[in-house]
Write a structure and sequence with these properties.
The protein has about 130 residues and is α+β, with helices and mostly antiparallel strands. The protein is built from 2 helices and 9 strands; from the N terminus they run βααββββββββ. Strand 2 and strand 3 form a beta hairpin. The N and C termini lie close together (about 10 Å). The model has no long low-confidence stretch (mean pLDDT about 85).
Length: about 130
Amino acid sequence: MGELIFELDDDMAKELLIKVLETSKLPFLKNLFKHIYSFKFKDNKIIFDILLFSFNLKIKSYPDNVSGVYVFEHNIPVRMLKDQKLPEFIELQDNIIRLKIPSSDILKNIRINEFKIEDGILRIKLGNIN
């Protein structure tokens, strides 16, 4: 089997994030992200500017397969999110976010060949585990 390449540019990501958060049960994030005025992919970071603040998520590690734990470093003020009920698959610490994707028969057979952010593009290359 060949590779599947998924690419997302800055503008598509911003629109997607806003649409996803419209239905969010996290009112703080929902209201905060309405005010994004800049959203960029650069040097393995997602950088977004909201009001007077600049926040970023940087890829620290990701699993070999699609299912597993993705780890991001961040500078988001977690004290503002402590009272929010986060989904079970998100673990938030002072400067680390862990996104836990559960395993399934399909996901455990899909390998991540590349996961990077550069030049305004989030690029994920997926392949089949033989």
